[in-house]
């Protein structure tokens, strides 16, 4: 599995609709597996009766290449190499397509995110602060209710927030910046290897310079991100870019 395919799984789990063409990456991953099995003599029988004429012609070409290479005394793994190259090309095209439609992806995530951010912002405005624990508010009924709201809604913010960061890392759109591009986005593949990521993450959620602090747990982090005049939000790519350029 590639970072792009992992991202597609996460988007699907979140109920986000992606362009149908992107699914070809997964289809070719399956095809690559078939070619690998065939090259090793392990291919299962295929129900070719239900293939279209175009698909049958494609299989004929594949068999012709395999036989020609085998007769020449060379490895039949040439098919695997070619299929892997096609998969990389498909992934690159899919990544560019998704990057061009990232605003639509954010639009689909925004209602659930906003519904969770509102109560956490209200709790922060009422005085619930990062670092506080349940014992600190136990004697105040209103504070207890806010505390419970934070505990209830933070998992949603964390899940969608992490997905927003994954969009950035894999598709190469802000807030990730200054990272060498790889075939699937940032070549570092994650903030653990890229110190430039965490300080910039907050720009995807706030307009007042509040940073994403990786040292904080999710509870405290989202209280901090919601501690400004407005609730945290899934900002557009342009808004995020402006925050980073300011």
Written description of the protein model:
The chain has 246 residues and is mostly helical. It folds into 2 domains: 80 residues, no CATH class; 144 residues, no CATH class. Helix content is 61%, strand content 2%. The chain contains 10 helices and 2 strands, in the order H-H-H-H-H-H-H-E-E-H-H-H. Strands 1-2 form a two-stranded antiparallel ribbon.
Task: Encode the helix/strand succession as letters.
Answer: HHHHHHHEEHHH
Catalogue the unreliable spans.
180-185, 189-193
Number of strands: 2
The average pLDDT is 81
Question: Which structural class should the secondary elements be placed in?
Answer: mainly alpha
Going across the biggest sheet, name each strand in turn. Answer: 1-2
What is the CA-based Rg, rounded? Answer: 24 Å
Largest sheet features: 2 strands, antiparallel
What share of the residues does DSSP label as strand, in percent? under 5%
Tally the structural domains. 2
Count of helical stretches: 10
Query: What is the helical fraction, as a range of percent?
Result: 55-70%
First-to-last CA distance:
37 Å
Coarse shape: elongated
What order do the helices and strands come in, and which of them pair?
Blueprint: H1 3-13, H2 24-39, H3 53-71, H4 78-100, H5 102-125, H6 134-137, H7 141-171, E1 181-182, E2 185-186, H8 197-201, H9 218-225, H10 237-245
Antiparallel strand pairs: 1-2
Task: From the structure above, extract its key features.
mainly alpha, two-stranded antiparallel sheet, 2 domains, 246 residues
């Amino acid at each position: 599995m590639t970072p792009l395919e992992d991202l597609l799984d996460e988007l699907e789990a979140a109920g986000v609709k992606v362009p149908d063409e992107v699914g070809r990456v997964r289809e070719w991953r399956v095809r690559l597996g078939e070619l690998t099995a065939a090259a090793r003599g392990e291919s299962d029988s295929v129900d070719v009766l239900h293939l279209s004429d175009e698909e049958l012609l494609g299989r004929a070409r594949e068999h012709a290449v395999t036989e020609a290479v085998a007769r020449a005394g060379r490895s039949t793994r040439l098919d695997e190499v070619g299929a892997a190259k096609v998969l990389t090309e498909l992934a690159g095209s899919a990544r560019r397509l998704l990057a061009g439609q990232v605003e639509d992806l954010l639009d689909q995530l925004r209602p659930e995110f906003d519904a969770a951010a509102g109560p956490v912002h209200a709790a922060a405005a009422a005085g619930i602060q990062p670092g506080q624990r349940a014992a600190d508010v136990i004697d105040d009924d209103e504070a207890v209710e806010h505390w419970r709201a934070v505990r209830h809604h933070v998992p949603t913010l964390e899940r969608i927030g992490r997905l927003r960061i994954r969009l950035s890392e894999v598709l190469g759109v802000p807030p990730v910046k200054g990272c060498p591009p790889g075939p699937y986005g940032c070549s570092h593949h994650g903030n653990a290897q890229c110190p430039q990521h965490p300080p910039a993450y907050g720009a995807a959620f706030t307009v007042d310079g509040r940073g994403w602090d990786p040292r904080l747990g999710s509870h405290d982090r989202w209280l901090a991100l919601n501690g400004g005049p407005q609730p945290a939000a899934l900002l557009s790519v342009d808004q995020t870019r402006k925050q980073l350029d300011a």
